[in-house]
Structure formats: C-alpha cells, structure tokens
Amino acid sequence: MITTLLVANRGEIARRVFRTCRTSGISTVAVFSDADEGAPHVREADAAVRLPGVSPADTYLRAELIIDAARESGADAVHPGYGFLSENAAFARVVIDAGLTWVGPSPEAIEQMGSKIESKRLMAEAGVPVLSELDPDAITEADLPVLVKASAGGGGRGMRVVRSLAELADQVQGARSEAASAFGDDTVFVEPYLTTGRHIEVQVMCDRYGTVWAVGERECSIQRRHQKIVEESPSPLVERVAGMRDELFAAARNAAKAIGYVGAGTVEFLADETGRFYFLEMNTRLQVEHPVTECVSGLDLVGLQIGVAEGRPLPAGPPPSQGHAIEVRLYAEDPAADWRPHSGTLHRFEVPGVAAEFTVPLGTGIRLDSGVDSGSVVSPHYDPMLAKVISVAPSRDVAARALAVALTKSKVHGITTNRDLLVNILCHPAFLAGDTDTAFFERHGLDALATPLATEPTVRLSALAAALADAAANRAAATVLGRIPSGWRNVVSGPQRKRFTIGDTEHEVTYRLGRDGLIGHDGVRLIEATPTTVVLDLEGLRRRFDVAAYPGLSVVDSPFGSVALVPVERFPDPAAQVAAGSLLAPMPGTVVRVAVEQGETVTEGQPLLWLEAMKMQHRINAPTDGVVTELGVTAGDQVEVGRVLAVVSAEEAQ
C-alpha cells in the first residue's frame, strides 16, 4: 500500500494527482523550483521539497534530486505526471532501485516506446499500421513534405515540417536543438508528412495480470505547432465511420500487449476521412487530455494508475462511455503573433460555473484543471499552459456551447492568452459539424480564428467604461469634495479626456457628466459608475461592464468580450523612450543564436536571432530593410521582456 506519494512534476498535473491522493487517504509531497516557490501545487501538498534553480535541466529533470526529495520527505512512491522525466526509463529504474513504488509502466516498456524509431518497428511487427521512416540524406523533392520528429518526448517539441530540400538541414538541426533542450536527447527522425488527417488516440489501461482495457478514443486534431489545443471524446470521425472504433481498439490493445504494458498509456494514430489509420507513437504516461476520457467514462484514471501500481487487478472491462466531453488548453500566448508565449503576473483568474476541479462533474457541467490561480506568476521557464477547461454534456453541440460561454465569461487578467481563439473554434461551423483535422488553421485561416471577440464598437464602449470607472475611483479616493461628479464645472467647460492603448492602437475617450448624465455619446446613457462596475443603457438595452484596474492596466469584461487597455501616461518619462527601429525582447528568455553582426545590411523578415522561452525557440526578424546599427546581445545571454536586442536603422540602408 502506498502511504506517501511524491509527484515529480509541477503545475496542474501535480494538483490533479494530489486531488486523487486526498480522496484515497494518501499523503502528498511536491517538489518545486525557485520559480515555483509560490505555486498552487506547492501550497496544496502535505510537504514540499525545494529543487534549487529555475531551468528544467537544473530542477525537474534532475533524477537524483527527485530521489533525494523522496527520501527526505519519507515518500514511498513516485508519480511522474507528464513531461519532464515521465517517459525516462532511466528515471523509472532509479526510482525502483531506490525501493520506491513507481506509478507507471516498466522501464523496459518506456524504453521500447520512448524511441519513436524503435516503437514503430515493434508496432509493425505486431501488425499495427505504421508510416515508413525516411533517410534524411536520401530525401528527394518527390518525398516532400516531410516531418522531422524528436525520437524522445512529445508535446510538439523537436518537430518541424519541411517543404523544401533547401531548408531540410537547418530544420533537422533546429529540431535536434529543441529536443535536446526539452528532453535531454537530440535524436530525431524523418517520416512522410500527411498535410491533412485526424489525430485519434486510444486510452489504454493495463494491470499486471494481463487485463488490457481500451477506454475510449479521443480526437485531438486541432493543433498548433503540432501540439494539441482542443481534445474531445468520442471522436466525430470514429462515430461516423462504421467499424472504425473496433479496429482502433484492437490495434491499441495489440500495441500494449506487444510490450507487456502495465499502467495508463495512450496509443496515438493518424487517420484519414475513410477511417484508415497509422500508428504515430505510444505515450507511456498519463496524457494532458485524460480528463475528457474521465468525463465520459466516469473513471478516475489517476486512481487506477495508483491501484495498478499497488498490485490491484482491473475489472474484466471498462464501463461504457456516455455523453460528450470537450477540453481546451488555455495558454499564455498570442496566436496572432506566431503563438508568442507570454509571462508575468496573472492578476485574476476566474472561470464561471465550474462544477468540479480535477474530478468528474455529475452529469452536465464544466471541469477546471488549473495550474494557476489569481496572483500566480507565469514563468518563462516552463510550458505556457495555464489551465484545461473541460465541458461534459449529453451531446457534442451542448458541450461546445457551454464551453464557449464559460470561456467568454472567464476573467483572465494580466496575461495575453489564446482564449478568444478557443471560443472562435468552438463556435465555428466546421467544428460544430465535426469537420476537424490537423490542417484546421490552414483551411479556415488563423487570422480569422484569432480575431478578438471584442469588436471595434465593444472596444470603444469598454474604453468609455474604463474611463468612467477610473473617474469614479478618483472621486472615491478624494479627501476633499469627493461627492462632486468628476470634471464638474459651474460653467460648461471642455470634456474629460483619457487615452488608452491596445497594442499599437490608441483610443481616446472624451465625455462630460452634466445634469442630464453622460454627454458626448449618442445612444449611450450612464446608469451607474463605480470603480469596479459601469452600467450603460445602449439604445434601451442595459449592459454591465466589470472593470478591474491594476498598475499600468485596466481590464473590462462584458458579454461582448474582454478588453485589456493600457492607460497612456499624461507625462511620459523621456528616459523610457527607445530609438526607432529597436527590437525589444517580447518575453524573458535565453538568446540561443545570433545570425548577424553589427553593421550588417539586412532585409525585412530576415532572421536576426533566436530566443528560447517556455521550451520553444522564437525567431526575431528584421522589421524592415536596413542596417543593424546596434546589437546588444550575444548567444547565451539571459534577457528580460522589453530589453533592446538590436536596432535596425532603415535610413542607413540608403
């Protein structure tokens, strides 16, 4: 029997495992890096052990530190979560050799499936359909496009699509570098790239006595950078194609039996519209998207993992699936800016109508699995996922609608996220029709899907609400004549003016408050204005705007969408200004490569350098034709957001 479980991970997966431990009477131990000292998973554990440092290589990827933490805390079992060391066979052996219970498959199974090259060979021998591997040195134009993939790990890291022979060598090298950083293994391989297809996976659960479950399938076709952002169960494709589910389940069970698998795992396939499918990989761990399977099956997959690790047998078969569940991953990133990740303080995080956290809602409802809460600091050192929001309902259309509404009404302040993109996907006719594949963004246009929910009229009304709330806050804080309306004069004077920016766009709000109320906005009548709430009558329809003010930021939430406004300083500090053509670090990170020198002539779009942040590499391009007049960084430099990386002066190119 397990008495104390250490989770060798962080964020929402650590909290998810702790949730099951609390209901099972198992004590919990967290590990944390210096960047995670104040994280929710640290507060919720019965005990926590510090891993000195911030980078994954110094903390969560250090097997010896994890074992020391287990000994120090008295843990008798280790759960690896997902990512980090979860699919590291050497780590599993170290845990077992230390006399601890390993909540996962055998090291041998991890080894066999951990190499995507070896796993495909094994699956072919087991009769599971596979895609052929290509020799990078023998690839011709006829083979294009191809996909370069890291042999270790997952999550889309170390994965590149190559469409021309000229870029093949650079993309292979880039994939190796990214894979080494994320997984400590730079082995990559190349296979044909199917430009369209369905990503279908089967959850398996196996005990030590030969019982192998296929616990339903999930469709995860909508992806960015080969990483899933929308997952659901059951799959619309599998529901439509007769006999496909039986064939998928048989292939998944054969894959598990071929390696004597024990524990929870996922067998992933790429399928076409006719129902033909090919083995991609087997993840020898719990998946990020496991909640959708839990929500339709009623199972606690973490609880089953622990039970199997304790030697308990599974029942003869899994329960039947009921209803439909959809999960979206809420990321701290800007889809419209090439998925650029964001870090900083999450001032407020609230999802309305949550029926359950880290467990299955009873019947219809919203489930929230989150690694953050209000006040959390989103670090640049780790994956930018903030939370998973899951909707379960009797039918797919109801689940999608409920999830879209919950996301729209969520209050996520201080960090740019992909929330609006997710809502647009859930409301898109193609998604609602079940017409999803891995080319969803290419087919329907990322620009259109990433369009903010708040339209231009909504932005104007939100800016007005922010200005009125700010004025109300000023009057509430006034020590003299605080009850007099803002800007009030005996004689009519000029209007009140406030300016805000959204990105590069500036919005000026002008208004006056007279005896008859709000002046200067036809069709808009002010009903109420407090520092946190503004109610406006819009042509007879009353709407409430919730306003939250933070240093340098004002966020307005309404049924029309959320708007983040940056107040413009009336008297800006000249010392804070930067030279024209300056390229500023969009996020904290590490400069991994510099491709130009000071004085070099560059063209618009030419890559100047690469930053690594949140486990991904991000290219910084020249904004225009010009000359690099300043180059303030070198490879290996750690930079903070806003630091000047380089200056490209257009006039010197003449």
3D architecture notes:
The protein has 654 residues and is an alpha+beta fold. The chain is 26% helix and 33% strand. The chain is built from 17 helices and 39 strands. A hairpin with a 5-residue loop joins β15 (333-334) and β16. α4 packs antiparallel against α5 (107-114) and α12 packs antiparallel against α13 (419-427).
Quick rundown:
This protein has 654 residues and is α+β, with helices and mostly antiparallel strands. The strands form 9 sheets. It has a 9-stranded mixed β-sheet, with helices on both faces. The chain has an 8-stranded antiparallel β-sheet with strand order 26-25-24-31-30-29-28-27, covered by helices on one side. It has a 5-stranded parallel β-sheet with strand order 3-2-1-4-5. Strand 9 (198-206) and strand 10 form a beta hairpin.
Q: What fraction, in percent, of the residue positions are helical?
A: 25-40%
- Overall shape: it is globular
Mean pLDDT: 92
Q: How many helix segments?
A: 17
What is the beta-strand fraction?
Answer: 25-35%
First-last Cα distance: 75 Å
Strand order of the largest sheet: 13-12-9-10-11-14-22-20-19
Low-confidence stretches: none
Please summarize the sheet with the most strands: 9 strands, mixed
Q: What structural class results from the helix and strand content?
A: alpha+beta
